[in-house]
Amino acid sequence: MQLLIFYGFGFLALFSGIAMIMSRQPVTSALLMILNMFCLAGLYAQLGAHLIAALQVMVYAGAIMVLVLFVIMFLNLREKAGIVSKHGVMTQAVGIAVLGFVITAMVSKLDMAKLPAAKAPAADFGSVVAIGRVLFTDYLLPFEITSVLLLAAIVGAVVLAKRKV
Amino acid sequence: MDMPVPLHHYLILSGILFSVGVVGVLTRRNAIVVYMCIELMLNSVNLTLIAFSRQLGDLNGQLFTFMVMAVAAAEAAVGLGIIIALFRNRQSVDVDDVNLLKG
Q1: SS3 call for A115
Q2: Fewer beta carbons below 10 Å: N end or C end of chain A?
Q3: Least CB-CB distance to A157: which of B51, B52, B78?
Q4: Furthest C-alpha separation in chain B
């Protein structure tokens, strides 16, 4: 049953990812990306990361992708001639070939026996309480730095998108 | 709860998703699609982190994912701001049209 859920979400994520980089219209790409993120949220929930799954749907599929769709429609983007970058076709082909080689090598080197054995998770694994406890004790400083980063991003976005500085 | 899914299933899926993202970044011309491919790569890394987090019964992986999401949100705001500024100057978001730094 678990395997069935994994393969359902996994193949859907894979197909939406591949269809995303192949579709002609940016809007189609964005909608496929949202589907991809929902599938990944399903996998997170299956892995017991319930809070992260909810955040994935809210932050990624909700906020970020809506922003992307907004920009696509705002700029009224359409693909002109050809969706694939025109210069350096050879470079791209070599790059993709090298990438394929690296991935194949990685997967073939993946030694199932050396992977860590599964440990039984705690009863509250992945719950809001458990995550919050770690976030506000061990990860308090990174959490505060994140808030500074978000502030910098807000200022940066306003400055970049302003007509005249 | 029946048999859990073995860890290497998740690792292979996330490896494939990451390479799909890399191929998209390398080949596509539209800056917004390139941006979405970067998001896809971030997401595939998140999947690895959460799979290991579950396997080891350790919450640190999920906290890392949390931070990655915060960075992705910041990146979305700044990246889309850059794309809008680019469109205003060039009337295009084609990455091949952006060659000002080319010698």
Answers
A1: coil
A2: C
A3: B78
A4: 61
Tell me if A64 and B10 make a contact (CB, 8 A cut-off): no
CATH of the domain at B42: 1.10.287.3510
Average pLDDT score over chain A: 84
Considering the domain A1-78, what is its CATH architecture?
Up-down Bundle (1.20)
What the block records as the tokens of A142 is: 């990174």
The pLDDT tens digits for A22-76 are: 888 889 999 999 999 999 999 999 988 889 999 999 998 888 999 999 988 888 7
Residues of chain B predicted below pLDDT 70: 1-3, 103
Nearest chain B CA: its distance from A85 CA (Å): 5
Which of B32, B69, B77 has its CB closest to that of A72?
A: B32
The answer to whether the Cβ–Cβ distance between B76 and A26 falls below 8 Å is no
Domain limits, chain A? 1-78, 124-165
Q: Do A135 and B6 touch (CB under 8 A)?
A: no
The reply to whether residue B40 touches residue A153, judged by beta carbons under 8 angstroms, is no
**Residue A88 pLDDT > 70:** no
- Give percent of chain B above pLDDT 70: 96
Q: Which residue of A has its CA nearest to B88?
A: A163
Is the residue at B1 inside a domain?
no
Q: Using CA coordinates, name the residue in chain A closest to B67.
A: A146
Closest CA to A41 of A24, A18, A16, A19: A16
Nearest-by-Cβ selection for A18 from B20, B56, B84: B20
